[in-house]
Design a protein that fits this description.
about 800 residues; alpha+beta; seven-stranded mixed beta sheet; six-stranded mixed beta sheet; 31 strands; about 30% helix; about 25% strand
Amino acid sequence: MDYKLIGHDFVPPDVDAKVRGKARYTEDMRVEGMLHCKLLTSPMPHARVRRIDAAAALAMPGVVGILTADDVPSFAPPQAPILSNEPLYIGAPILAVAAVDELTAIAAVEAIKLDLEPLPFVLDPLESLRPDGPNARRDGNVGNMAVPVQTIKWKESEFAGLAQGRLPTGTPAKSWSYGDLDAGFRDAKFIIEESFVTSGVAHHCLETRSALAYWQNGKCILYGSTQGHTFEMPILAGFIGIDVDDLVFISEFCGGGFGSKAVAYTLMAIPAHMARKTNRPVMMRISRDEEYAASARSGLQAYVKIGFRADGRITALDLYIVQDEGPFDAYIDFIQAGEAVSAVYQPLAMRWRGIPVFTNSPPRTPFRGPGTNSMAAMVDPHLDRAAKALGLDRLAIRRINAPDSDSGKVNGDRQPMSSAYLNDALDQGAALFKWDERSKRNGQRKGSKITAVGVGQAYHNCGYNGYDGLVRIAPDGKLHVHTGVGNLGTYSYASTSRAAAEILNCRWENTVIERGDSRRGLPWNLTQDSSNTSFTMARTNYAAAMDAKQKLCEIAAATLGGSAADYGLGQERVILQRDASRGLTFAQAAQRAIELGGRYSGHEVPVDIHPITKSAVAKLAGTGLIGVSRDELPLPTVVPTFACAFVEIELDAETGALEIIDIVCVSDCGVVVHPKGLEVQLKSASVQGIGFAHLEHHVFDAHLGIPIHASILDCKPPSFLDVPVNIETGAVGKADPQNPVGTKGMGEPPMGAASGALVSAIQEALGGVSFNRLPVTTDMIINALAKRPQAHKPLQVNCV
């Protein structure tokens, strides 16, 4: 379809503020009389607070108050507490101190005497699964947002193969299967059976989890950094202990989240409780060390067995995932790992089993493609080994297993997919990369440099419905798109708002996006995560625009005669279709809506919209024509997004160092709503994929549990020196039928595809060496080249 706005580049409204340094993040805010709050955090991975002596701190000039676990609400485990008398990881907040300035608050924290009783701790999930292994929590060693807290211990005999690198596969917490697995392996011409590890990594958001709060007329005004907006409000209100109507939440900009700020977090409630206790505004600035301790990707220990037919088709796949859960209810990485494998490779038979195990490591939160990208980086390179063993082309083995829109299925219940064009993406990527030409120099050596190429592919589920859209046409004729989705920094809040302007035939320069402050009347929208925003928000804005369009036509009919069906939309006018000279401007229609009242002006609302949306409309009632609707468009299938990546490297056989020469990344994301936004997402995800595959990982002292990689320098996310000069991008561009403008998300899979391609290339450069561990670091490459044993033990995590 030929759109005027969708698919065209534009300047998002907040770009100017960011470029000029005028964007105000949480730490930029100031309120008269503001106190500064600092945290006292646990120096132990698991302990019980026996005594707190804050006398000296409270006696210091400028110290105003202290907040402990006894002053804040508690929540049912395994949810993270606000403050805790039983810290479960190093860096867990125990108490907070407020003072007139930050230096005084820091000095007061240092003056507090803390008596802690050390408790048993565990950093390796497998150790907690042993019969006499320690538990990270006293109420159980297994649990997740999808699994109740419980105790599961495996038999010691099940660990017999661990020393040789075989993952134990005892009782799982969840499982599914389809097809005849045994028959699939019997029919296989080639079988791969491996155990592997993916490391936990920090998110490294540039903006830390700082928050500011104060109370005014019985309401809490809270500034914070989150990926969503209205989705966070009921959660935040619960943390603070108030009704959501008594919360004003302001989050105009988010300096990076990558999943870690997808939902509200308990740290944000600390300044709110401190402000209530001291009757003063409170700013809490979170340091880089505190941010490092606050969130991380879940590491995985896994086992996979894959059977291939002679033509490369996967006949059977057996997957077992042990997830490092951290101390609280982490995300469902282990579940999504199985989902991703079933989606990308379409095995004829598959069994998935998984178990999430608590550890005394940083809290685990979603990180760009949680679970799904881990599989892309670890499972996909095994297809290269199978291709070599079977005498097949490396792309051909991926094509024969890739899903298509007609037959693609996902998960154990084999849910259908709305659209799947992974093979189209592979074809486009291969052409852009010149795969046939570059493959000929795969493995060539010049001096100490080995050239190698790799390919990777990844998946994520990216679409939801049931959320609300809200638009308003003001008496001056301007279209206001109200969005509660948040501002993650990808500009998808703006690009999806253009769907409403497109439907209403409104100029973009005459469109205003209302966001960032709940007082502006923001509807109930999903947070920005799981690559869902393009699909989900295009639908909600479409639904609201269609409601506004219907009301415009009804108002014109009531004013000019005829029926609503006789009218359509010109540019910012509602016109009689048989005579375009007769009609109303948007400004005139908005004024008529105010006069008519009821559902036209927002004084009456649909019964099925969310209470937050009803409250938002109430704020706007009587200010223009209100279009509001819940997205009830059908969604009978899983909405998948796919990506593939191609990488060329030069690996130095003397030093183990590698240089990435080129990356091509192509997305199957439906209709592209914002070409520049797509390009930036594919490039940035590819860079994160480099870090995931080659550079970043957690390291803790095995005896004390102390984090060793606790800074950006030590964690080593990619720099300009680690990435190629150019990353080329592309998109299939075929519409998804479940979205009215044909779009779907794309933010997650490019990271997994790039990491898989890089591991694939390293494997090729080394003649087929499989490390079965992420990241593949330089020292591991050197050991492989020298044919020396690796420094880590088999399946060892967190302490390598």
